Amino acid sequence: MAEIKADETVDVTHLVCPNTFVKAKVVLDELDEGQILAVRLNDGEPAQNVPRSLKEEGHQILSLDENGDGTYTLYVKKVGD
Amino acid sequence: MAKAVNYAALKKGGFMRQKQKGYFSLRLQVTGGNLTAENIKAVADVAQRYGKGYVHMTSRQGIEIPFIFIDDIDEVKEKLAEGGVKPGVCGPRVRTVTACQGSQVCPSGCIDTTILAQELSERYFGRELPHKFKFGVTGCVNNCLKAEENDFGVKGAMKVSFDDSKCIHCKVCVKACRAGALSLDENRNVIKNDALCNHCGRCVKSCSSGAWSGTPAYLASFGGLFGNSIYKGEQLLPLIEDRDTLFRVADATIAFFAANANPGERFRATLQRLGEEEFRKAIQEAYNGGN
Prior knowledge:
- The complex is a heterodimer of chains A (81) and B (291).
- Chain A is built from 2 helices and 4 strands, in the order βαβαββ.
- With 81 residues, chain A is an alpha+beta fold.
- Chain A has one domain: Translation Initiation Factor IF3, CATH 3.30.110.
- A 4-stranded mixed sheet of chain A has the order 1-2-4-3, covered by helices on one side.
- Chain B has 2 domains: 7-82, Alpha-Beta Plaits (2-Layer Sandwich), CATH 3.30.70; 98-157 and 217-288, Sulfite Reductase Hemoprotein, domain 1, CATH 3.30.413.
- In chain B, the strands form 4 sheets. A 4-stranded antiparallel sheet of chain B has the order 1-2-4-3. In chain B, strands 5-6-7-10 form a 4-stranded mixed sheet. A two-stranded antiparallel ribbon of chain B has the order 8-9.
- In chain B, α7 runs antiparallel to α9.
- Chain B contains 9 helices and 12 strands.
- The interface between A and B is medium-sized, with 15 and 16 residues.
């Protein structure tokens, strides 16, 4: 699988649910359709729930990669305006 | 001369005797925790005119209108009926069927709890049994409605399937699965360990590519108690994959309780007294399709 190139990055590891999702959503709102956001998430609830919440907003999840330091990077493509 | 009061009949009809002589707290039928705006207006009017202007929310999603005077009972019933509100039941019979909002409203819901609660209620509500019997329906494994507190608990689940050709190998499902049933092989292909799967459907809910799909299914629990003694209902059957099977199992459970319980004996106590084997046999037969 080819490396995914993000257009924007946001770190939500200092936040707790649901602010993790809210922050990611706010940043996605600023992107253009088709652009890719990389979201750095903590393991546990954020890694389990944020991908699903963004999917339910209609965005396309591309990958959830483990960073090896207790965090994950979620790549999500913006769908819709 | 004072009228003879048939307290048992009143209790059966949802009127519970209060400490205050001549006054009753009227329990209403609230199936699945839902009331219409019209229902609520009728309840408010009755509470204002005949009660003390307030209602009590019960622990099982019901509403009671306290301080209804005995002479007003018939009039109160009429007023409530005009607003589409029916009295509840107390005593040794099937009680209010409770439910969370389920898949019609909640993103986590796997089953339509509202419809199922109505169907269960239509079939069993008020049925005379040796003791009270409670049904509760929760939409998913998050268990907001506490299925295992009930004599018969239903928990929404999913029968899931995986289409490899649609998988984009994003790994979200592996993380979303809390049962540890999913893993990746060296080529990032998803592997499912069926023995660990708890049928929660989180893989389906989280899947962004449509590789995971699921159909609504049920996990039933039996013999829960949350009163004088506490007992968690036990899941004695595998995943129930369709509504007809669920109702066959429910029928078999009610029939077993009706046939085997002593008067005043809760379902759990019956199971403890007789041992679970016979009951397991009865529901397994219903599960397999027998009657």
